[in-house]
Amino acid sequence: MKIEQIELRHVRLVHTSPFETSFGRFTERHTVILKVHADIGTCYAEAPSLIGPYYTYETTQTTLHIIQDFIAPALLHHEIDSIMDLHKALAFIRGHNIAKSGLDSAYYHLISAQAGRSLARYLGGTRDYIDVGISIGIEGNLDALIERVDWALRKTFKRIKIKIKPGWDLEPVRSIRQHFADVPLMVDANSAYTLDDVRMLKKLDKYELMMIEQPLGYDDIFDHSKLQRQLDTPICLDESIHSVADVQEAIGLGACKIINIKLSRVGGLFPAVQIHDLCQRHGMPVWCGGMFESAIGKADCVALASLPNFTLPADIAPSDRYFIRDLISPFIVLEDGQIKVPTAPGIGFDVDENFLQEATVGDVLVLP
Ligand code: OSB
Ligand code: MG
Fold first, then answer.
1. Which of 78, 108, 255, 312 could cross-link with 250 by S-S, CB 3.0 to 4.6 Å?
2. Per-block average pLDDT, block size 10, for the chain (368 residues)?
3. Protein residues near ligand 2, an ion, with CB under 5 A
């Protein structure tokens, strides 16, 4: 395959309601959308960094910069024979996994469409439907939280995840357990704690959480291994996992019992599938995390989550849970806590080009 042109744009979507985590409060989602023209077709893809360096060091601007100045020149007009080829050509770029994932996604969209197969099946996915859960932000007061959980359960989400931070942890969990004794429940700390908080974290054990996601440092694996030995609740790593090697280290050290795979954080679908396979060999369950991607990025998540070792509900919700208007419409329908995996060739959704134009911030960068 030869990539002949890349159109790059900064896109702004408006959240249906503000989303607060331990790293900030957001009313808008800024993301990077690519349109890739190749000799075998044209596709859209997303590189879903956040507007600032809150979750990883990448930002909307660094993503545009790295794609424009390093990734595009390394790929444009070169023969790319395989996905390994593409990753080899980008290996000289240290880090910037989210930027790289944009081109990895584009490759898979093009090649699966050309093969006449759905992205899910092309990747080795076996499920027709995937189970999904919801990620609920820091609501700030218990009444609002309980109302939100109640709404989510009526919407049929299969599990509830709440964001926690010091001062908003034990109380919200206790309150949810009081109201909804058996609901599959987990918490995500986004690195808000240290080993000094072990006493508090141990108190979470009695609430039978499915897992606690990324309690400690965003780049830590070792301290998580010390913490896991002291907790009954399984630790799930998110921020700390960027590669197959990170997963090997986490497994070797006993730093977690579950892995959250975000394809953009690990550099694309190719490394995401490798991590899936490695975890499967070790009997470690995985689930598909989310980044509040637009529906273009979420389509990749749906395909990835159809692989067999994705045995826990994914952070993928219908568009109207995230945005006033999304880049694909209609997108996902949630039925009995499940989303149907598309069967059409390639990504399986059509992009709303008029709205994409409307949502574009500044000029479209055309890389010839
Ligand atoms: O830690 O899982 C996270 C959103 C942005 C950055 C980090 C995270 C999240 C979410 C959103 O929890 C999950 C979703 O997309 O539904
Ligand atoms: Mg997380």
1. 255
2. 98 96 94 98 98 97 98 98 98 98 98 98 98 95 97 96 96 98 97 98 98 98 98 98 98 98 98 98 98 96 98 95 90 88 93 97 97
3. 188, 213, 238
Q: Which two tokens stand for residue 122?
A: 């092309």
Q: Which residue has the tokens 């985590």?
A: 21
Residue corresponding to tokens 């898979």: 108
Span from the CA of 290 to the centroid of ligand 1 (angstroms):
5
Measured from the Cβ of residue 41, the count of other Cβ atoms closer than 10 Å reads 14
Q: Which of the 8 DSSP states describes residue 306?
A: T
Residue closest to 244 by CA, chosen among 201, 282, 291, 293: 282
Rounded to 5°, the CA angle 26-297-116 comes to 170
Q: Side chain identity at 308, as an amino acid letter?
A: P
368 CA from centroid of ligand 1 (Å) = 34
Question: What positions carry a catalytic annotation?
Answer: 163, 262
How many CB atoms are located within 10 Å of the residue 23 CB?
18
